[in-house]
Input
Amino acid sequence: MTAQHELRFDLMPGGKLTGRIAVPGDKSISHRAVMLSAIADGESRISGFLEGADSLATLKAFRQLGVVIEGPDLGQLLVRGVGLHGLRPARAPLDMGNSGTSMRLLTGLLSGQYFASELVGDPSLTRRPMRRVTEPLAEMGARITTSAEGTAPLLLQAAEGLRGIRYAMPVASAQVKSSVLLAGLYAQGETCVIEPAPTRDHTERMLRAFGYAVHQDGACICVRGGQRLSGGTIAVPGDISSAAFFLIGASIAADSDLTLTGVGVNPTRTGVIEILKAMGAEIDLLNPREQGGEPVADLHVRAAALKGIRIPTELVPLAIDEFPAIFIAAACAEGETLLRGAEELRVKESDRIQSMAKGLQALGVEAEPLPDGMRILGGSSLGNAFQGGSVDSHGDHRVAMAFAMAALRASAPIEVRNCANVNTSFPRYAALAAEAGLEIVERYD
Ligand code: S3P
Output
């Protein structure tokens, strides 16, 4: 734990991003690949698995639940599936670390088991709301105890049989949708989730790829309990949420010309590209192809003069993890950028509205936090947009990586503190960013 507070990024101002790089595997898909392979019949071979702390927490949990997994070895895993009913009770609490996806999806999957489980997390995860999953799961018959505040640790009692429900989600959350659908695999009858707005659909795509029927009628997504999943091969694409830092960095730094190879471009994840293009970014999707039911492309991005925009609300869930980086772009855009309808940012790995507003202000940017978003007055689309200084990431990986990119348009060095959690989603971020041209050095205080 102490190491979490000791890593800092030191950044020299200026520079540009060039060349061809590959970002690590998609975090959301990596989690699901392990979960679904584990409960499938037969073996699954996974490549491109993200070896970050979050997806490794999921992997470790399934080993504790009796699943034999070989690897990871350079992103390759061999999972010996135990079938829908083959998981075994863990002898110790399952530690989800910093990972909301692990905790919320596993709560759904484990609430249908004949044995009890306990799910715990780090201090950040222990502050995050869990009633959004425990309430619909309780409606299905799950018996889950949370803290008085509705947070972890979560105690899941042995199930006495779940029943399918029809659940209209109050928030647009892929984690809630996935949690309820995974419980639905173990429920009597049909389980349906109705989304208030489209969210990432990796669970539905991967269930289908494993031969499990998923029915979708508009915003309503349904599974029927008790079918089988068949193991297979999964090639995890590069994570667009990790690529986003480079899309923004290359857009804001003069003379940049960068290609990001093999990035997942599922339309439920590409909000960041749409937002950046609306701001004037020059991004091309090259060599489009499909990989394991997911669309993939190489992203070519060049520096561009950005302008501030009002971010369309319907794009918010499709870019939910990219706002820390988008705020950096907004600070480098001509005029005002306004984000509303994004209150979910307050319950991420940190309160991202607060963490980003504080950091932007520390770097001399006019940023006004709003209850559900942010107003940012960009500097000019050319020249420096940030003064130098010191920024705290609040232990939030995406806040840390976003502020690192700000150095490309800063007038003096920037220091980003509390960066160890970058390893949850993007191991070797600093090395890859340095390879592309960012002047970044990691320091352990
Ligand atoms: C995720 C869904 C999103 C996202 C998170 C990953 C997933 O969370 O922010 O990083 O893999 O399902 P919400 O469901 O809370 O929006």
Summary: The mean pLDDT is 97.
